[in-house]
Structures are given as C-alpha cells and as structure tokens.
Amino acid sequence: xEWSEQDRPDSASTVWSPFAADTDYFAPSExxxxxxxxxxxxxxxxxxxxxxxAKVIDKRESxxxxxxxxxxxxxxxxxxxxxxxx
Length: 86
Prior knowledge:
4-stranded mixed β-sheet, two-stranded antiparallel sheet, mainly beta, 1 helix, 2,3-Dihydroxybiphenyl 1,2-Dioxygenase, domain 1
C-alpha cells in the first residue's frame, strides 16, 4: 500500500512479501520476518555500517530489481538494504 510523508508526499510505499514457512532467506536471523530499507547508495551505506561496527553480511545480489545487501542489527535480526535500479 502507498503512504506519504508530510514533507515528501510522492515518495513512500510499503511492500509485504510472504515467504514459505521453511525459507532460509532470513538467516542468520531466527525471526520470521525481515525489514527492507530502500537506499540511494548501497555501497556507501554498507561502508558506513561497517565503519560504525555493524555486522555486515559479506554477500551482495544484483538483479533487474536492483542491488541488495544485508546486515544484522544488535538484536540479531537480518536487515535488507535495497538500491533500486537506475
């Protein structure tokens, strides 16, 4: 569904993507969900996280949907970062 921020009324949306119960996509997290943040510069964001001491997962994926990277938050949840194409 779409929503907007008061100061940026044309730039926000929420996507819900269900996965099979036995998926390992969220590993190493034991959570049954994962938050995904859209970023403008994936490499720069991952470098910032690394410099700040975050546990960045040493894996990247690229597809027609864009570039993806991940880190693990302090509670052990895997968090996905997505840089859309273009």
